[in-house]
Amino acid sequence: MPGREVLRRAGHVLMERLPIEKVDEDDHSIRLSGGDGTVTFSVHRHGMETTVHADTDQVRTSRLDTEVQYFLTLLPYQPGDVKGRGEALPGGLPGVSTK
CATH number for the domain including 21? Predict the structure, then answer.
């Protein structure tokens, strides 16, 4: 998945699920911040794969970290993965193709 698409989806999913807003963005990262804390997603393309790194200012059991982990499960694990809502395995944004 292209890095820009990962960042767009990260913003969409987290802003839909948390009281958080975009405070900074460039071609390779997005920073979201709100009452639950701050998260920065950064992406780097390596051939057909995109590496996604999420860094928060919270602890692993916080609401923000839980939602970040949720978002990461929505991403395809490797090129060609197609997952949809309601599947037993994580990884699928509702109404959005991962191709």
Answer: 3.30.310
